[in-house]
Specification:
- The chain has 226 residues and is α/β, with parallel strands linked by helices.
- The protein has a single domain (15-217), classed as SGNH hydrolase (Rossmann fold, 3-Layer(aba) Sandwich).
- Helix content is 41%, strand content 9%.
- It has seven helices and six strands; from the N terminus they run αβααβααβαββαβ.
- It has helices at 13-18, 27-35, 40-63, 81-86, 101-124, 135-144, 198-210, and strands at residues 20-24, 68-72, 129-133, 159-160, 180-181, 214-215.
- Strands 1-2-3-6 form a four-stranded mixed sheet, covered by helices on one side. Strands 4-5 form a two-stranded antiparallel sheet.
- α3 runs parallel beside α5 (101-124) and α6 (135-144) crosses α7.
- The longest helix is centred in the N-terminal third of the chain and has 24 residues, at 40-63.
- It starts with 12 loop residues before the first helix and ends in an 11-residue tail after the last strand.
Length: 226
């Protein structure tokens, strides 16, 4: 059942029970924590609190009749051009791909905790289907093997300001005065320093639908049937 803008109706009980609840979460929670100048250790300590909120949300949906959950983990935060431009780094902070190691490490710890939660929910929520999708591995592979996929400058945004290596400036973000979009967005992974381009997202979507990164390996078509 699809609700359009201005619709007066709500999803009925059957629609609620048959709906697929897609949870794609984590990046903003980690990003905001680092933005508050918390240390790596402090950020990691906050992860269980975020996981607990996700658990509560899933249980609330379940108690209202939701039974189908499609959970994405978070991507490599340390590879975003925005973070690479903003963060004051020390020597050795970047990995072989040029991403911020501590940010990606925090993302991976979050993902491990999220996987454990999904496994826990499978046992706790009777007759519910919970699929965990490894978005991190999909995106990191695209970034670290950018040339194989036809991308240039994997850590550089298409739309922004400042040019190489990241083409990002917090004072001239995409769409604001001083910013400029590249001529061919299909050659870039990052659109504006935080979001992926249509070309990159197309690859991500194809990988998701392949089920190669899903636990369990369940076809998306499964959720299209009652």
């Amino acid at each position: 059942m699809t609700l359009t803008t201005g619709s007066k109706g709500y999803v009925n009980q059957e629609g609620f029970q048959n709906a697929l609840y897609m949870i794609d979460i984590g990046q903003n929670d980690l990003s905001d924590s680092f933005a508050k100048n918390l240390s790596y250790v402090q950020v990691v300590k906050r992860i269980p609190l975020v996981i607990a909120e996700i658990k509560d949300a899933m249980k609330t949906l379940y108690n209202q009749g939701g039974r189908k959950f499609w959970v994405h983990n978070t991507g490599p935060l340390g590879c975003l051009p925005q973070k690479l431009w903003l963060v004051q780094r020390k020597e050795g902070d970047l990995d072989a791909t040029g991403c911020i190691s501590s940010y990606n490490s925090a993302a991976q710890l979050f993902n491990t905790a999220l996987l454990h939660l999904c496994q826990e929910m499978k046992s706790e929520l009777a007759d519910a289907t919970v699929v965990y999708v490894d978005i991190y591995s999909i995106k990191y592979d695209i970034i670290s093997n950018a040339k194989r996929y036809g991308f240039l400058n994997p850590l550089m945004g298409c739309c922004g300001a400042g040019g190489p290596p990241y083409n990002y400036n917090i004072k001239m973000t995409c769409g604001n005065p001083g910013s400029q979009a590249c001529g061919d967005g299909s050659q870039y992974i990052s659109w504006d320093g935080t979001h992926y381009t249509e070309a990159a997202n197309a690859i991500v979507a194809k990988r998701i639908l392949s089920t190669d990164y899903s636990i369990p390996k369940m076809s998306f078509d499964f959720f299209c049937h009652k």
